[in-house]
Description:
Blueprint: E1 9-10, E2 16-20, E3 23-27, E4 32-36, E5 41-46, E6 49-54, H1 59-80, E7 83-90, E8 95-99, E9 102-106, E10 113-116, E11 121-124, E12 130-135, H2 138-150, E13 161-164
Amino acid sequence: MSRIGKHPVPIPAGVDVSVAGQNVTAKGKLGQLSVTLVDEIDVSKEDGKIVVKPRGDGKRARMMWATSRTLVNNLVKGVSDGYTVNLDINGVGYRAAVQGKELVMQLGFSHDVKYPIPEGIAIKTEKPTSISISGFDKQKVGQVAAEIRGYKKPEPYKGKGIKYVTETVLRKEGKKK
């Protein structure tokens, strides 16, 4: 039995969830999201909660049980609370600023790196060395954060680059004489 899949997904106040076959749609104050679940999973709405169960005892049904429950939970949490990923910039002269619909970063290259901000994503830079990415789609927020981090990953000798706030960079010892 799946430890994650057996727990029903609670629906918070202000969120409207509709289940039509394998499609689950959630509407909240931040937006609307939907997901289509695989055929091996049975999803239903029961007294303010969404219950996800496997249809059979097959291996794929058991594998997709917790995955489907997590996808539905991400929908509900996204439209009610949203998701935020914070990035830190380390390095002399490295900085970022939001200009219009672009994130402009100076990362030690001969040119500024300009990243267009996608729809449904909000990027803030309270300090020139910190970036806050927020939105209601967990996958999109994580993808944008990974793309921005990919411009200058943290290097192990001085720790320069863009890193997640929760990430620890394993530092290496420099060369010896």
